[in-house]
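Researcher: We plan to redesign the surface later, but first we want a full-length starting point. Tokens attached.
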């Protein structure tokens, strides 16, 4: 863990995990400026997420924390679902936003494990995503 007010990290693939801080901006392909105390976890390869499908739809399971780190938590629609720690991003809109931002942030594509459920999926029984309740 690194605690500092301002930090410039060059030539490392990083995931910045909030701890009261925020990403200020990406300066170039290899530099990220951040502010306030934060933790850094080095990412040596793309993260893998479960992509859960039933006969008519699919969702990607992503942690709420990661959506906040990527700065898209407040952009997720009510068409996605949630549990205590995860958001199940619906395939038509929210998942494509996540993939786009993830690729820009990490300079690689996220990987997905396919999980197929041959009936109505448990995800449909979860509460709709509502950022104001989290």
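Model: Full-length starting sequence:
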């Amino acid at each position: 863990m690194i605690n500092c007010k301002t930090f410039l990290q060059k030539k490392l693939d990083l995931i910045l995990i909030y701890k009261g801080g925020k990403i200020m901006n990406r300066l170039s392909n290899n530099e990220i400026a951040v502010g306030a105390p934060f933790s850094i976890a080095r990412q040596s390869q793309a993260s893998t997420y479960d992509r859960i499908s039933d006969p008519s739809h699919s969702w990607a399971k992503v942690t709420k924390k990661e959506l906040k780190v990527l700065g898209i938590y407040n952009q997720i629609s009510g068409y996605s679902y949630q549990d205590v720690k995860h958001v199940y991003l619906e395939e038509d809109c929210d998942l494509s936003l996540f993939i786009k931002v993830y690729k820009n942030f990490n300079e690689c594509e996220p990987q997905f494990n396919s999980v197929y459920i041959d009936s109505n999926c448990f995800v449909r029984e979860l509460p709709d995503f509502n950022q104001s309740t989290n």
